Amino acid sequence: MKRHVRLPDGTEVPALGQGTWHMGETRRSAATEVAALKLGIDLGITLIDTAEMYGNGGAEEVVAQAIAGQRDKVFIVSKVYPHNASRTGVPAACERSLKRLGIDRLDLYLLHWRGSHPLAETVEAFEKLRETGKIRYWGVSNFDTDDMQELARLKHGGACATNQVLYNPDTRGIEFDLLPWCRGHAIPVMAYSPVGQGGRLLRSPALAAVAKRHNASPAQIAIAWSLREGHIISIPKASDFKHVRENAAAADVELTAEDLAEIDTRHPPPAQKESLGLL
Ligand SMILES: NC(=O)c1ccc[n+]([C@@H]2O[C@H](COP(=O)([O-])OP(=O)(O)OC[C@H]3O[C@@H](n4cnc5c(N)ncnc54)[C@H](OP(=O)(O)O)[C@@H]3O)[C@@H](O)[C@H]2O)c1
Description:
The chain is 38% helix and 15% strand. It is of the alpha/beta class.
């Protein structure tokens, strides 16, 4: 797994990561989830995406166990709830996340989605956390183009390192305007739900046909597709060891022009502005 993506300051981060939504929800499943994340790290999927929301903090605790003793190997992303995104709420939420994760600095801290606290206040709080060394980078999630434009106009808004949004062959509206806007500002996009949550997308005949040519699975094709342009970080979530192994290998699948055209036929790119897909 050699693919990397550049953050706006030129720092390279892994293009493939591991999601953690629905991890840490029950004590019974936690041991398997820890083992799955560890396996992913061993296979080179060293970027891990989590959030204070997932499992009500439980996912961060699962991540803590998976990264214990190997903090230097991993790039940890977490997210603050919009209702905590105030001047005082952000540092308090960050401390709680750090404690659950068992680390003293987050690599990337995201506003999970826009809420009622003024964006300028959230940015100011993120910048303070950066100054005090509690986080390395900050970014946003579920921001559409107009939100990104508003953010860019704020003081320090240009320091945003990423925008994490829904992106897979079935929901590719961001290609019309958001993706070009982010590329133009050297801001990589993080693609969430890249395998469509393991549902209908994986039964796509187009993905099946391309998968057959590559001796791969439809999920691997969906992940390779999300990584195809070198400007996207893809974060599939997998608790099943077979899925983890498949996903790690997906970063090595190189799609051809023929493959991409076949996927376009069944999953066409947007012809006009579409509002941002959300989960
Ligand atoms: N910022 C946001 O608002 C937001 C929203 C949604 C998600 N996210 C982040 O993005 C991550 C990924 O999104 P997601 O969890 O919604 O969906 P996803 O990664 O597209 O799909 C996860 C589902 O697909 C299955 N799966 C994974 N790899 C597979 C494979 N190779 N073959 C077949 N099935 C496979 C998983 O099963 P098993 O678990 O059984 O392996 C799980 O049920 C989340 O975990 C979270 O970290 C962020």
